[in-house]
């Protein structure tokens, strides 16, 4: 597993990567607790100060054991996260198009975000 960058290294990298800047612009830095949906083989290079958990869909392979949660796509997110909520942020990079019930997913994220929490996501062109 890759090591996470220091906060200063993260800020320097974020200045050069527009995608990373868009996905993290509302995340309370340097300390927050959140969830990254569908990290795949390369999760976002979030800094050490952020506590982040990784969630993938059940049909996605987790050969390297990186996922903290495996979601069926239908069960409530609150039930899956259990004590690990509320969260400060959720990041979904090219994940929404794989969710079987998009409206239910949005409702689930709303339920686990703290008041003022943010969902940052990207969609395919």
Summarize the structure in short.
With 125 residues, the chain is an alpha/beta fold. It has helices spanning 7-16, 18-24, 77-81, 102-112; strands at 32-37, 50-57, 69-71, 87-93, 113-122.
Explain the overall architecture.
InterPro entries: SAM-dependent_MTases_sf. This is Class I SAM-dependent methyltransferase. With 125 residues, this protein is an alpha/beta fold. The protein has one domain (7-122): Vaccinia Virus protein VP39 (Rossmann fold), CATH 3.40.50. The protein is 26% helix and 27% strand. It contains four helices and five strands; from the N terminus they run H-H-E-E-E-H-E-H-E. Strands 3-2-1-4-5 form a five-stranded parallel β-sheet. Strand 4, helix 4 (102-112) and strand 5 (113-122) form a beta-alpha-beta unit. Helix 1 packs across helix 2 (18-24). The longest helix is centred in the C-terminal third of the chain and has 11 residues, at 102-112. The relative contact order is 0.20.
Topology (SSEs and partners):
Elements: H1 7-16, H2 18-24, E1 32-37, E2 50-57, E3 69-71, H3 77-81, E4 87-93, H4 102-112, E5 113-122
Parallel strand pairs: 1-2, 1-4, 2-3, 4-5
């Amino acid at each position: 597993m890759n090591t996470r960058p220091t906060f200063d290294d993260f800020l320097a990298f974020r200045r050069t990567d527009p995608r990373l800047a868009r996905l993290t612009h509302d995340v309370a830095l340097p300390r927050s607790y959140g969830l990254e949906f569908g990290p795949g083989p390369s999760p976002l290079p979030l800094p050490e100060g952020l506590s982040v958990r990784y969630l993938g869909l059940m049909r996605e392979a987790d050969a390297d054991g990186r996922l903290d949660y495996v979601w069926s796509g239908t069960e409530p997110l609150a039930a899956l996260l259990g004590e690990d909520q509320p969260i400060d942020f959720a990041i979904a990079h090219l994940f929404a198009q794989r969710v079987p019930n998009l409206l239910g997913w949005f409702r689930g994220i709303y339920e686990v975000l703290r008041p003022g929490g943010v969902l940052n996501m990207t969609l395919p062109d």
